[in-house]
Design goal:
Length: about 400
C-alpha cells in the first residue's frame, strides 16, 4: 500500500505556524526549548532606584492585594502586567508568610522576551491562595518563581480569566465581567492603582518588617552609675524584669522612701513602663509600690517609691531587688469635650457601689437561733444595738 506524505496531501507545501507560539514546553527533553518560550516576561525590570525606566511601554500598573497565608493575612503591592504570560509569586515571599504550595505536574522554565533563560526559573510549585483586590475576592493560582523586584505578578491568565476594564492612564480597574459580578465581587467593582515607586517602597517595608520589628523589641537601658545593675528576668517566661536598688535606704513603719536605681530607659513606642511590687516583699514585709508609670518620652533616672504598710522598719540594701518593670502596650487616643455621655445601668454609682446589695435584718426566736447556731456549716454571731451609742 502506498503511503502519502503530509507534504503531498498539502499540495507539496509544508504548513507553517504564523504568529507567536504560547504553548509551554515539557522540560525533560521531550520538546526543544529553543522553539518555544513557556513563561515570558515582557522586559527586564529596573532596580528600585531607577523606577522611571519601568513605564516605557505603559503596560503594567501596581495595585494593593491581600493574600491569606496559613497563619495570617498579608497586604502587598502586586503588579498587573499584560506582558507576562503567567501569574507569578515570589518563592521567598511564600516561605516567609507560610503560603502553602504544591508540587507542579511538570517543571517549567522562565524565558525573557529575547529568548534568553531567566534566573527566575524553573517553576516547580504552584499555590492556591485566597486573594482580595478591593472588594474583589478569588482563589488565585500562581506559579512560584524567584522574582527579583516584585512579590506578585498578575499576568495574562489572570487578565483573561476576569477581563477587568483597565484605564491605564488613570490607573483605575473595574471588575464588570459576568464572572466577577456573579462570584467575585462583594461591594464596589472599582479599585485604583498606586504609583509604582510608592508600591515598591511599601513592599520593602512588608518584606523587612519582621526583622525590623524583632530588632526594635529591645528596650534601651543606660547606666547613670557604673555600679548600677540593669533589669534582669527571674525566669524564662517572667512578665517583668527585676529592678535593683542603687543605694541603701531605711523605710520606717507606715512610711515610704524613694529609692534610686541608677538607670534610665527608653520604652518602645506605643508602650509604657509599669513599676510593680515584688510578691515576696508584699507578702512577707508588706512593702508596696506607689507611682509606677514610666512614659515613653521620659529619659531620666528610674526611681521606685516604696511604701512600708507594716509595723516594722524595713531595710533596703544596695543591689537588692526592690520592684519589677513591666512593658505594657497603650492605645493612644485624643480626648474631646461633649455635652452628654451614653447612659449605662451603673450611671453615677461611684466607689464601692458595684457588687453590693442592701442588708436584710430578720427576727428569729431563741429556739430557732439555737438550732441554727449548732449547725457545723455556718458562722454566726450576735449583734447588739446600743441605744446609748446609737449603733450596732
Amino acid at each position: 500500500m502506498e503511503t502519502t506524505s503530509q507534504s503531498q496531501r498539502n499540495g507539496g507545501r509544508k504548513r507553517e505556524r504564523v504568529g507567536k507560539q504560547r504553548e509551554s514546553p515539557v522540560s525533560n527533553g521531550l520538546r526543544d526549548k529553543t522553539k518555544t518560550k513557556p513563561i515570558e516576561m515582557s522586559k527586564l525590570y529596573a532596580a528600585l532606584n531607577n523606577t522611571e525606566a519601568l513605564d516605557n511601554e505603559n503596560n503594567h500598573i501596581m495595585v494593593t492585594i491581600k493574600l491569606q497565608g496559613t497563619t495570617r493575612q498579608v497586604t502587598i503591592k502586586a503588579i498587573i502586567d499584560s506582558g507576562a504570560t503567567e501569574d507569578l509569586i515570589d518563592r521567598g515571599f511564600c516561605n516567609k508568610y507560610n503560603i502553602r504550595t504544591t508540587q507542579a505536574k511538570t517543571i517549567r522554565e522562565v524565558y525573557l522576551a529575547d529568548g534568553r533563560p531567566s534566573s527566575m526559573g524553573p517553576v516547580t510549585h504552584t499555590p492556591k491562595v485566597p486573594m482580595d483586590i478591593g472588594s474583589h475576592r478569588e482563589l488565585a493560582i500562581f506559579q512560584v518563581a524567584k522574582l527579583p523586584n516584585h512579590e506578585v505578578i498578575l499576568g495574562m491568565p489572570w487578565l483573561k480569566q476576569h477581563s477587568p476594564r483597565i484605564d491605564w492612564g488613570q490607573g483605575k480597574i473595574t471588575f464588570e465581567s459576568e464572572r466577577c459580578t456573579t462570584w467575585c465581587l462583594k461591594e464596589s467593582p472599582t479599585v485604583y492603582a498606586i504609583p509604582e515607586d510608592e508600591a515598591q517602597e511599601e513592599n520593602l517595608k512588608v518584606k523587612f518588617g519582621v526583622a525590623q520589628s524583632k530588632k526594635d523589641q529591645r528596650v534601651k537601658v543606660k547606666k547613670l552609675d557604673q555600679q548600677a545593675k540593669i533589669p534582669t528576668r527571674g525566669s524564662a517566661q517572667a512578665a517583668g524584669r527585676d529592678l535593683y536598688a542603687n543605694e541603701s535606704k531605711t523605710i520606717t513603719a507606715q512610711g515610704q522612701e524613694v529609692v534610686r536605681t541608677g538607670i534610665s530607659i527608653t520604652p518602645l513606642r506605643g508602650t509604657y513602663g509599669r513599676i510593680a511590687p515584688r510578691s515576696v516583699m508584699a507578702v512577707k514585709h508588706r512593702i508596696a509600690v506607689n507611682a509606677g508609670v514610666i512614659d515613653s518620652d521620659y529619659t531620666g533616672e528610674i526611681k521606685v517609691v516604696l511604701a512600708n504598710m507594716g509595723n516594722q522598719v524595713y531595710q533596703v540594701k544596695k543591689r537588692d531587688r526592690i520592684a519589677q518593670l513591666i512593658a505594657e502596650k497603650i492605645v493612644e487616643r485624643d480626648y474631646y469635650e461633649v455635652r452628654t455621655l451614653k447612659k449605662t445601668n451603673r450611671g453615677q454609682q461611684g466607689f464601692g457601689r458595684t457588687g453590693t446589695s442592701k442588708a436584710q435584718i430578720c427576727e428569729i426566736s431563741a429556739r430557732a437561733f439555737g438550732k441554727f447556731y449548732r449547725r457545723p456549716d455556718t458562722t454566726t454571731g450576735i449583734i447588739k444595738y446600743s441605744k446609748k451609742e446609737g449603733r450596732m
